[in-house]
Amino acid sequence: MLNATSIHSGIFFSPAAALNPFQLVKGLASSIERTGGKIVEQTEVLDIQDRRIMTPYGVVTADVIVQATEAYTRNFSGQKRDYLPNYSRMIATEPLSQKFLGELGLTERKAFSDDRYGVIYGLLTEDNRIAFGARGTPTYLFGSKITSEAENNIKSHALVYKALLDLLPQLKDVEVTHRWGGVLAIPRNWLPGLRFNKSSGLGVLGGYVGSGVASSNLAGRTMADLILGRETDRTYLPWVGVRSRRWEPEPFRSMGVMASGSLLKMADSFETKTGRTSRVAKILAKAIRGS
Q1: Residue 129 and residue 96 in contact, taking contact as beta carbons nearer than 8 Å
Q2: Does domain 40-83+190-236 match CATH 2.40.30.160?
Q3: What are the pLDDT digits (tens) for 265-274?
């Protein structure tokens, strides 16, 4: 069990795995190039229309186009409200000794989280650093704006660090050596989906919220089946063909995000103090998902 504050009980899931997403991307890229694929980096896609991809350098045509643009879908015409761009930040500590990890209950590279509404998550890296993430603030910018400044926000990373110390105060003298962030894509129904239109040759997949490493791998395999016209167990999964309704227009979208964030913080505080499930959180969960 993780030696954290205010732990009443826990669930241990096994088997489980932790991986380095960057190494996964490098491996996938190498596989693509070995099989004859070409990767063109630093080429902005301005729009996707009728088997054509518009870039600053010209138009690329293809029989099949797969749009896997997540939060950056907001840049394309008519798609600004398809996803809610939501920022998540992470920090990493200096390498920790095996003795210290044993005191924390983090031997054998366990990953960990809890059931608070303000999501947190952590794991051990290969060199025994704790990589820890949380949403921080702001999680959303008006008009679905995406900026590099928001990804590396000093105030937000300070909140992530505070959340880590609240959970594991033993880390108060441990140095944080790395800070980074990124933007997630949240569909209005909070459920990922994928679809392929044979007539237009366009495949669309995404909306993984915070589970993209595993979900995108499965989605990619499923999309390959759909493109090749193969019927497999994957093509009958319930997320195939799913398309969420769009998010509300501004300013209602921004108002809703800010209000729900505040209410969920109140719900976390209520449950911590009383040990009872917050009715506000139950009602809000239904409202957020539109159900």
Answers
A1: yes
A2: no
A3: 899 999 888 9
